[in-house]
Design a protein that fits this description.
alpha/beta, six-stranded mixed sheet, 21% helix
């Protein structure tokens, strides 16, 4: 009997052998991995190396989120590789027809490559729909009879309003209004056909040029929510409930403590078809400017808000400390951010302990600066809506006075 050295079997063979062991345990009793097995009708020997094969399999690493799963999450920053379309090549050929033997060069030029353009769309609320790379459409090659190739179509990438475009740490575009566009990558120029090189001293040129490659850039997109008012507060202060009460937005609320994970923008309607956008900024914690908790990820969304609503939980002891801590975090993130026009909203007035803390809060901060209300029962919501309208009118007047067009939703 001839002995064949033991070798590990492929994974498929291991699976088959394991199945045989399952259905015939008496036959395979006492069998150990690596033992030589005689096959019926043959003197050849087979080595079972299933255990060795399994042992040397390396565990697979954690896979990154796919594009499909990524679209389910709120994304406010993205790295994008953009390439313009390549230009088509020029054609080198000569005209030929009966009784016209020397018709001359008639190679057409190649078409230009298509650009990649970023366009701000008001219907897009997150960068989750933006892919990690884009390539423009290439131009077609030139052809006979002086026919030029068709140019590549422009590729438009829809991004949310308020998207900053950065390249190497430098801001190159600010798409803060609906319809704003930025050419992210230029398409390559089309090549020239030999007809282009026809001259008096060169009546039969054979030269043609290839199309140029499209521009390639690595851009960083950063979303900053655009809204008139931004609600700033610690987790579970009732910001989402307040947004549901004054606007058409439907953020998730519940009777147990949790924090919102993405900004929500609600529209508050007023008479005369006027609208005011209010953003619910996810909860800030102490030390957010040091990237604790949600950290710097959502502090950037406050920069675009024209005025602020400091929402405090009136049921907690010493609620005025919440205002001081919120202003401290904003000031550490960006100097002067806490000094914007603002309103202090004391929420949860429906709780008994909240009414007991209200006089102390008004004494500390001033009666005119505090609006006590209940997002649950709707108490004093009209006072907040009137104050928002006053702040919005002041903002519009200031923008028009400086010759700028005010932001409108």
């Amino acid at each position: 009997m001839v002995m064949i050295p033991a070798r590990p079997l492929p994974e498929r063979s291991c699976t088959v052998l394991k199945s045989l062991m399952k259905w015939a345990p008496s036959t395979w009793t006492g069998l150990e991995p690596g033992r030589l097995l005689p096959l019926q009708g043959s003197s050849r020997l087979l080595s079972v190396g299933c255990a060795d094969h399994t042992k040397h399999q390396e565990p697979s690493g954690k896979k990154p989120l796919s594009e499909k799963k990524l679209k389910r999450h709120f994304v406010d920053h993205r790295r994008v590789l953009v390439r313009g379309g390549n230009g088509g090549s020029g054609m080198s050929c000569f005209h030929s027809e009966p009784r016209k033997e020397f018709g001359g060069p008639d190679g057409g030029d190649g078409g230009n490559g298509g650009h990649v353009i970023l366009r701000a769309d008001q219907q897009i609320k997150s960068l989750s729909s933006v892919l990690s790379q884009y390539r423009g459409f290439s131009g077609e090659d030139g052809s006979r009879k002086n026919c030029s190739g068709r140019g590549g179509a422009v590729l438009y990438v829809q991004v949310p309003v308020g998207t900053l475009v950065k390249e190497g740490g430098e801001i190159v575009a600010d798409l803060s209004h609906p319809g704003d566009e930025y050419v992210a990558a230029l398409g390559g120029a089309g090549g020239k056909g030999n007809r282009f090189f026809l001259a008096n001293d060169n009546r039969a040129p054979i030269t043609c040029t290839p199309g140029q490659p499209g521009q390639e850039r690595v851009l960083y997109l950063e979303l900053k929510t655009v809204a008139h008012a931004g609600m700033v507060g610690f987790p579970n202060a009732g910001k989402s409930s307040l947004l549901r009460a004054i606007s058409n937005a439907k953020p998730t609320v519940a009777s147990y403590p949790f924090t919102t994970l993405k900004p929500h923008v609600g529209i508050v309607p007023y008479a005369g078809h006027q609208q005011l956008a209010v953003a619910d900024i996810p909860g800030i914690i102490r030390g957010a400017h040091q990237n604790k908790g949600l950290g710097l990820g959502f502090l950037r969304h406050i920069e675009r808000c024209r005025f602020l609503l400091f929402v405090v939980d009136l049921s907690l002891p010493e609620p005025w400390t919440q205002v001081d801590d919120l202003k401290y975090e904003l000031e550490k993130y960006e100097e002067g951010l806490s000094e914007r026009a603002h309103v202090i909203v004391a929420n949860k007035l429906d709780l008994p302990q909240a009414r007991a803390h209200l006089p102390q809060l008004q004494a500390r901060l001033g009666l005119a600066e505090v609006i006590a209300l209940s997002a649950l029962t709707g108490e004093n919501l009209e006072q907040l809506l009137l104050r928002l309208k006053v702040l919005h009118d002041s903002y519009v007047e200031a923008e028009l006075g400086q010759g700028r067009q005010p932001f409108s939703w």
